[in-house]
Structures are given as structure tokens and as C-alpha cells.
Amino acid sequence: MIGYELVKKYNDLGFEVHGITRSDKGFFDGYKNINKHFIDITNENKIKETIVDINPDFVINTAAITNVDLCETEREIAYKTNALAAKYIGEACKKLNIPLCHISTDYVFDGEKGNYVEDDEINPINYYGWTKAEGEKVLNELNHDLTSIVRISVPYCISPVKVNFFMWVLNTLKEGKEVNTVIDQWNTPTYVPELMDGIVKIYERDVNGVLHFGGGEKVSRYEFTLKVAEIFGLDKSLIKPIRSSELGWKANRPADTSLISEKSEKLLDIKLKKVDECLNELKKII
User: H or E stretch including 71?
Assistant: First the structure.
């Protein structure tokens, strides 16, 4: 989802874009300045050769296995994709001395305190979070100064690629079906159009290091769902509050992974919007 939006963003800005992906879903067919490379990023030689051949000005790694429960059972591929592939990409970027922006997650934290800043100690409580934390670790150990690690949280937008939490809530309520959402999980949802602008600025301003890019507001999943219903004029009575223990997840979920994004706001000269404002923007698009 993030990769698709970035390809679209940079193409709109007039850049020649190279998308490395596993398979072709037909997106961007017919676009002159979008080049597709069908590569398994866990193949060290292939991914390194491809990056060297392209010799890009900027690399953004959005590839990951983000299904938290799947990572608990498919541990080998999760580790290869979320950690080892990040190392391979980082090594290629260091060799070429080009900037790398790596997308990470709020799930590197244990969720015990919330309101995390970039220097807070990471302590993942599920395998997905651990693999993403390992991805950060291997990149830090490379000591490639042109690396930025951007932690995001529950990204949402209108996407043709992936049904995110916002789209699932919206579509389910529109169908008149009940939505069970948890009242004991808090985060700072990342509005994808803001993230796109932020990543562009990371490159333009030569910003490096760890950055938090959550949203401008901390909400529970339940509160977020209520906001969607309110702004889109849907039936709030369909929203049923539950506790995460009732969902039967395979993986533990951290309770509060809200991110403080003041560093990003300062370095990138942005002001992250509140959830209501972002939802109202999406309402105009739909």
C-alpha cells in the first residue's frame, strides 16, 4: 500500500520511478516513467544487483510482511523479508553511497507506556515486531550515514492495493454490518498522504536517523471507528466495543504504541493533522 502510493507520488512529481516487486498486478501499466523489476528481495544477489544496475538517487524500502499473526507461524520468511532483506538493501545503498529510507513500525515497542519518542528503548512482544526491530538493528550496524528509519502506525488511506483498517471499517458500516473494535489498544494512525509528503521532504532535506511518523492524534481503535461513522454519516450503533483478548489473535498486541512525532514535524517543517481533518479529506475523495 505504501509502495503503491509512493510510486504514484514520485511519478506525479516527474521522477523516473523503479518499482521492485514480486508480481505484476497490472498497476501502472502504460506509464512511461515507471519501470518494474520482478525480484524476490530475500534473494541477496538479485536485489543487490538490481539496485546497483538502477543506480538510483534514493531508495525507499516499503517491503514487509505486515500480517502480525502470519508472522507468528511463517517465521522464516518473515525474518528474511523484514530483517535480512533490509540488510541487503542497506548494503547496496552503502556501496553506492545513496540515501535509504526504511519504513518500520510502532510494533517495535512493547506498548507499556505509549507516547514513544525515537530514543525510547524498543522491546517487541510479537514476532512481527521482533523482525522489524531486527531490520532496524542491521541497518544501524551498517553505519550508513544516509539512512533514515521511519516508524509508522496503522497507515490509512483510500487504497486500490490493500484494505486497511479505515477501509474495512468504512465498507463494513456501509453494508450495515456490525463492527467489533477494541477499546484497549491505542495508537497514532498514520495518514498516508501526509507520509508521502514527509518522505519526499526526507530526501529533499537530507534527513537521516530514526523518525516517528504517526498521526497528529492518539486514539483507540474504538475511538477511530466512531470518528469514521460520525464523519461519513454511518450508524454508530453498529460499532461494538470489545477487548483484544476476545479476538483470539495468535500474536500478542501491544496496548499503547502511540508515537510522538515532534522530531519529524520540526525537521520536515510539517504539522500533522488530527484524525477528523484527515477523514474529512478522505470523504471529499470518495
Answer: helix 68-73
Residues of the chain short of pLDDT 70, as ranges, are none
User: Across-strand partners of 259?
Assistant: 116
Cell numbers that stand for 90 in this block: 542497506
Residue 184 has a CB neighbour count (10 Å cut-off) of 15
How many C-beta atoms surround the C-beta of residue 131 within 10 A?
Answer: 26
Question: Which of 222, 224, 149 lies closest to 191, judged by CA?
Answer: 224
Q: CA 79, CA 91: separation in Å to the nearest integer?
A: 17
Please enumerate in sequence order all residues whose Cβ is within 8 A of that of 218, keeping only pairs 6 or more positions apart, or say none. 114, 115, 186, 187, 188, 258
What domains sit in the chain, N to C, each tagged with a CATH number?
2-163+188-218+262-274 (3.40.50.720)
For 22-70, what is each residue's pLDDT tens digit? 887 888 888 889 999 999 999 999 999 999 999 999 999 999 999 999 9
